[in-house]
Design a protein that fits this description.
Blueprint: H1 3-8, E1 9-20, E2 23-34, E3 38-42, H2 49-57, E4 64-71, E5 74-77, E6 85-88, H3 100-112, H4 115-120, H5 122-142, H6 158-171, E7 176-180, H7 188-210, E8 219-222, H8 226-232, E9 235-240, E10 257-263, H9 279-290, E11 301-302
Parallel strand pairs: 3-8, 3-9, 6-7, 7-8, 10-11
Antiparallel strand pairs: 1-2, 1-4, 4-5, 9-10
Helix pairs in contact: 3-5, 3-6, 5-6
The protein binds adenosine-5'-triphosphate and magnesium ion.
Length: 308
């Protein structure tokens, strides 16, 4: 891999298929993501979005195909979880007995120290703990919780807890962050604030790229809200089991694959999009991705990823 390829690499899913017994979920899925991209992943409920994220995370390996990520500067199979991949779920993953600061510092603690070290090298541990907390404070500041780092989860709103969960993922400085309906449980206003935060990260990417640096954030965000996908993603990827599988010689759908992959409009973080203007995109996605009656060639609306 050349230095330039490494600089631009985000993720590569190659011919990924997955099934649970007779339930065919993912079929020959190909997806290549560049560093710095914000991929909004949409698809009918049950089509396999979370299954795909778990496969990328390395906790549930696909039955067929391979998933490559950048691990310690090298392309490697994502066949186990690693620091290069982080995930944020809809349900907050915080420990109730730790403050925001310690919840965020926890990942570094588990990654960089052992129980033996913490028990028997007190001065070393105290020094490390301070270092981790200082680092956690930087990331809590980044997600807008600079003033709330000593609160416990029960003292925080849902939106604040979700910001902590995002800081937990960020502090590990992963190559790619997966977000599975991260704002699904939040009210509209809070949801919009968190979308703005993600767009600020996107702006940091653009600044880094303008200076010739690797963009710090690469995201795949699963959402059921098409407007959220349009606002946050710079690329819209639709996964669906509804495509013309007969041309591939199948009797019934062999599973969901990428049937939609197009660039999305990009917004500034302080800009509230006029969603009326994007009715065409929503309509197209509803037809191509969500409508069981519309069975198009599977690469007809795939403009960005390799289809085979
Ligand atoms: N551990 C499992 N064992 C058996 N079947 C599973 C398992 N996990 C998921 N499935 C099945 O795989 C299919 C895809 O599920 P998945 O959760 O990935 O869908 P999804 O696209 O994330 O749906 P939603 O939008 O509702 O979250 C479903 O039919 C589901 O029942
Ligand atoms: Mg899901």
């Amino acid at each position: 891999m050349t230095a330039v390829e490494q600089h631009n690499f985000g993720l590569h899913c190659r011919e990924v298929s997955h099934w649970f017994g007779d339930n065919k979920v993912l079929f020959d899925l190909n997806l290549k993501v560049d560093a710095g991209q914000f991929v909004a992943l949409v698809g009918p409920s049950g089509c396999g979005k979370s299954t795909l994220l778990r496969a990328i995370l390395g906790t549930d390996l696909p039955q067929e195909g391979e998933i490559l990520t950048l691990q310690n500067g090298r392309l490697a199979n994502a066949d186990r979880p690693g620091r290069d991949r982080g995930i944020v779920y809809q349900k907050y993953s915080l420990y109730p007995f730790l403050t925001a600061l310690d919840n965020v510092a926890l990942g570094l603690k588990l990654d960089q120290t052992t129980t033996m070290f913490r028990w028997f090298n007190w001065s070393g541990w105290a020094k490390k703990q301070k270092e981790f907390r200082d680092r956690a404070a930087v990331f809590l500041d980044k997600v807008g919780l600079g003033q709330a780092m000593h609160l416990y989860p029960s003292q925080m709103s849902g939106g604040m807890q979700q910001r902590v969960a995002i800081a937990q993922a960020l502090i590990m400085e992963p190559e790619i962050i997966l977000l599975d309906e991260p704002f699904g449980a939040l009210d509209e206003a809070t949801r919009e604030e968190l979308q703005e935060m993600l767009l600020q990260f996107y702006e940091e990417n653009k600044e880094a790229m303008a200076e010739g640096k690797k963009p710090p954030y690469t995201l795949i965000i699963v959402t059921h809200e098409l407007n959220e996908a349009i606002r946050v993603g710079d690329r819209l990827v639709g996964l669906s089991q509804y495509w013309d599988w007969k041309v591939d010689g199948h009797q019934r759908s062999p599973g969901a694959t990428v049937v939609y992959d197009k660039p999305a409009p990009v917004f500034r973080s302080d800009e509230r999009p006029d969603y009326e203007m994007f009715a065409d995109i929503r309509h197209e996605i509803r037809q191509v991705v969500y409508n069981p009656e519309v069975l198009q060639q599977r690469d007809e609306h795939v403009n960005l990823s390799p289809t085979r």
